[in-house]
Write a structure and sequence with these properties.
two-stranded antiparallel ribbon; mainly alpha; 2 strands; 124 residues; 56% helix; elongated; 4 helices
């Protein structure tokens, strides 16, 4: 009986009920705020420069310039196309080595030619 009277006092008192609801909303907001990842700040602006420096791991030349002064660029945009003659030469050398290896492999897989077999029998 005494417990029933306590609950009636608590829930009939609008101020106390409002305070409990407010505390519940604050607690839920804090819990949700802890699980939302932070966003990186977006920085906007304009850069002015008189020269551009681009560095590559191998020596290369600019083949095509894709942007011009005043163009807007975004992360991932292609700015220039580069050509690296040394890399192209190394690639062609690797392809030639692959062709030689394939020819040697074909020679092994095809077996010995008939002429070589006949000449070997004649020697015996």
């Amino acid at each position: 009986m005494k417990t029933k009277r306590v609950f009636q006092i608590i829930f009939h008192n609008n101020v106390l009920l409002t305070a409990i609801i407010l505390l519940f909303i604050i607690a839920v907001t804090i819990i949700i705020g802890l699980f939302i990842p932070e966003h990186e700040p977006t920085i906007q602006g304009q850069v002015e420069t008189t020269d551009y420096r681009v560095a590559t791991k191998v020596a290369s030349r600019v083949v095509k310039l894709c942007v011009h002064e005043g163009d807007r660029v975004h992360k991932g945009d292609t700015l220039v196309y580069l050509s690296a003659p040394e890399v192209n030469a190394l690639e062609k050398g690797a392809q030639a080595s692959e062709e030689v290896a394939q020819a040697n492999n074909d020679l092994v897989n095809d077996g010995t030619r008939e002429e070589v077999v006949k000449s070997s029998y004649e020697l015996i």
